[in-house]
Amino acid sequence: MTTHFHKKPNMYVSHVQVKVSNLERSVEFYKKVIGFDVLEQSGNTAVLTFDGATSILSLEQVDNAQGLQGGQTGLYHFAILLPTRKDLGNFIQNIVEANVRIGAGDHHVSEALYLNDPDGNGIEVYTDRPEETWIWENDLVYMTTEQVNIPSVLAEADGGWNGLPQGTVMGHIHLSVSNLAASEKFYTEALGFDVVTRYGNQALFLSTGKYHHHIGMNTWNSANGRPAPENSVGLKSYTLVLDNDAQAEKIKNNLRGIGAVVEEFAGAPKFGGSQAFSTVDPSGIRIVFTFDGE
Question: Which domains, from first to last, does the chain contain?
């Protein structure tokens, strides 16, 4: 179990807000295929849950929605972390029955499945290998992409898939960015993340507390790209959990120091928590900061 990486004092992704073109279709997909329940739904939004209380994902239908285009910044995928390998096996059984196209990758630190929602928004569902098996060298963690041994994962399944299990978290988010150097500077210097892996000059991975990554980013399809229009499907925002007021003030000062947007909130309820402030990264991606987390 690696869930301590998704608790304070680490800064981690707690929630992702995704734009879709047809809310009913997407809700059905996220219930049947991914295993969410609906916590609340009204108008053009649905807040999704796995435990009937907390939300790690919400959907918003945009009118006259435009599809995803190459060359745009935003979501590469969001990644749902399951507690055990058995859970991943049960999930594989469920998506096989649902006849959904998937990809897979063994990253040494984790075993992952990849699929898209009906609008092409990228989803990863994964489980971590024990952290004592991760290989660190000079503060960088070894990650690769090999074939997942699907039969081995399925061998641990017990046929007990009843939706996302207790202990599920939003494991990380992977972003399509326009300029890797600018994004690295922003996330490390302004927000305080550490670089833990690089893939050449096109992708890098960042974390707090020596996780293999809370945030990934690449320029594979988005180098020098621009944000998608407001009425496009894709990422609306994602939420990072702050540890304390001092950290919040430091980040706000850092952001103001580089001329970034800092929008304050007056504790408005949002997804069962309260927002502290938000900003926009160099690729036009909105980040919401909150104190609500474990």
Answer: 3-290 (3.10.180.10)
